Amino acid sequence: MKTYELSYFAGKKTFKGFVAEPDNVKHNTPVVLIVHMWSGRVEFVENKAKQMAEKGYIGFAIDMYGDGKIGQSINENTQLMRPFIDDRSLMQSHVQAGFSAIEKIRYANINKVLAIGYCFGGLCVQDLARVNIQVKGIVSVHGLMLSPENMDHGKFKAKVLILNGSDDPMVSDGHWLKLREELNYAKCDWQKHDFGGVMHAFTNPQANDRSMGTVYNESANTRSEKLIDDFIGECIQ
Prior knowledge:
By secondary structure, the protein is of the alpha/beta class. It has a single domain (2-236), classed as Rossmann fold. Helices cover 35% and strands 26% of the residues. The protein contains 6 helices and 10 strands; from the N terminus they run βββαβααβαββαβββα. It has an 8-stranded mixed sheet with strand order 1-2-4-3-5-6-7-8. The protein is globular. The protein starts with a strand and ends with a helix.
């Protein structure tokens, strides 16, 4: 496969995405857009983009923070993420900038895009579906479920897949019920899968902090990958 960094812009800010193209890539290849967790565009999401290229898609790991910033500690990660939680219009504009950058990828089919987000990125792809009618589907993987302050109901024209650990301390029943109300209001095609006894960050092998509620779970990870593969095929193949 071919991998490279792709710079794109929104206003005066520069963003650095990561592109993975399959061997013998052809014109109008579907794109799987990947949105990172609170730490930034780290190796984890770059590897997810590579996995998509191995499956025949263009994988595009976007940069929500700008300049490829990566946090090195819990405190730094919190400082990077906080402005987007406090101002959802900022989150929406940055994730939309990543979507628009797909037009810079030579072989990409902008009309066949699915977005997958992890943790903080799961919330970002929810917001992408709230403001973007072009994305075909979104997958929120152990994503936060915080309602935006700048809108009552989003567009949610895309298909939605939510993969959630039942014991995730960062997602309350109230958060989920409010999101479910919004999805039903939009009358979109949505589904949610809860993995019993599973905590936050269950797809990340480096997650092993029970005090924070972030614990890798091999079974949930394997099952989630199968669900994602089926969902991608349903949305953009």
